[in-house]
Each structure stands twice: as C-alpha cells, then as structure tokens.
Amino acid sequence: MSGFFTLQTPLQGARFGGWARTTGDAAAVVKAAEAEPAALPRALAESGGVLLLKGLHSIAQDASLLVRLSRLFGPEVEDYRRTLTPRHQVHDAVPEIFIVSNVAPVSRMPPKRPEPPMTADGGFPVQYPQRKGWHTDQSYRRPPPDISLFFAVAPVSRDQGQTIFANGTLAYEALSPDMKRKVGQLEGLHAQPGSGRSRDAVLAGTKPREFAAHERSQRQPVVRIHPVTGKPALYLCESGQMDWIEGPFVGMQPGPHGDGAALLDALMAHYTRPEFIYVHEWDQGDLIVWDNRCLVHAATWFDVETQNRVMWRTTVHGNPGALYAGEKKSWIPELADASTE
Ligand SMILES: [Fe+2]
Q: How many angstroms is it from 85 CA to the middle of ligand 1?
C-alpha cells in the first residue's frame, strides 16, 4: 500500500469501487502521487475500475493539477484542440480539459428524468431501459480510450446530477454459459452521438449525415479482455452510441426492430442490474477516476432552472489491449483509413 493514501473498498452501496483517502490539499496529493506513480493506477485496478478522491478543491484554481494526475494513468492525455472538439467545450488555458456544464458558453443540458421518475418500489432508477444514457466514453473511436477523470468544480445538490456506474466485469461473470458463448466472438458497431444513427433518430426517420472516413462507426468486441487485470468485461453502449442503421451488432439483423436490438436490450438490462451499480453523489472537490475498458456510466437529470453545474474531464489513452496493437487513431482525419468502417 502507498504512503499517501489508504484505500477503502468497496464504495458505499456498491460491490466495487474504492476511496483513496488522502490528506493535504490537491497540490500535496499530486506531488505525493508523482513520487509513487504506480500507486493510484494500482488502486484503480484493485477497486474494479472506479477510484474516488475527495477534498481536491484547489484543482479548481490550478487546472494543471488535474492533467498531472491524469498522466499517471497512461501515456497520452487527450489534447482536445487536436480532436475536432468544439472550442467552447475546452478549457481556455488547459486544452486537456473538456468542460461538462449547463453554464454558457458550454450550455450542455443534462439528460431527461427517467419515465417514470422512480422505480415501482420508490427507489432511484438505475436499470436500462428505465434509465437511459449508459455508455463508455468515446467507444466510437479505435483504439478507444482507457480512463476518464472527472472533477467536480461546481456540482449540483446531492440528490441530482449524479454519475452512475455499472461494472462490466461483474456483469460478464453473471452471464449464463450460453450467453457467454454467444457474445464471446460478437462485435458491436459504435456510432458518434449526434450522427443521426442513434436508435431514436432511426425510429424518427432522420436522415443520417454523411460520414468522412474519420467519423465512421467503429467495431468493438462485446467482451473485452482488460489489459491490466486480464479479466473479461462487457463492452457496450445503448441507444445513443450504437449504430442503429448497420448495427447494433455486426452479422446480426440490424435496426431498431431486429435480432440485434433484442440482444442489445437484454444485455443492457442485465449489465445495469442494481447489484452491478455504484451511484455517486458529488461534493465539490471530488475526483472520480474510471476505467472505460470495463465499466459503463450515465449522467442523471438536474434542474437547470435552479442549478449550475461545472465539471472537468480528461481522457487518457494508450493501453487498449493487444487487439488494437499497431492501429492508427481512427478519429484523426489524416490517419483514418478510408477503407475501414
Ligand atoms: Fe461519459
């Protein structure tokens, strides 16, 4: 164990996740973490892919601290100036920070409330399809990213604007042997949000926009072997981040009414069963590190009439696993191979 934190597992109300309990301000934590660079990544792996740090308020005054922490988790921290990200969503001084906020100029609205807003027994809904928006970050890219860091500059009140996580390793382990065989060799087709290929867009008859080579939907294995732990995990998204014209699965009946849709619904309902979930209620100064290779997550509703939310995200790339060895980045125009889909 490390000298600058103690690891408490699992996170409250969940079967996974860890809290790295630190002392001192964010600058002291970052300095200590850089002196023991393997410690936090090891704690992340030991925690099943969700690691919480609290009390890092001063990152809000020195955004570079978040980038320094991010660098501990992999060789490449995304520079959003180079990845066709709209500039108003990128931090002015630190281009590795993507801003998620309902405040102008970002003006990104939260997801709708589930319908109905509570479960039948009065609980907070987590399971698909009542809860929607489950995804793993940037799965429409090959190679996909490894890890995201999400820092609360200004969270909303604790009963709103949560981030919820589902554990793909536990969900995979709980599949029947028949289902494990069925999905073991299957590939999903992942699409950029807003491309006109989402389930809702296809059902509404929206004409999808033409893709350049670097924007095309990308195949991903439904079961990924984690490059650090060696464990298999489900790797899937739902309505908004799969391709519902040619997918959601390669080689199955496509579209919102096909065999592929039925399988996706069944898998996502299984993946997001309450026993595989952690719900995070944010406090200012919280940082969550999550592993996109073995988890999905979803944002939740908050009241934009009364609440302003500002969150900072970084994305770490560089260790996607042997399957992607030697691949060029699909999303960079000058690297994308026009022959791939
Ligand atoms: Fe996300």
A: 15
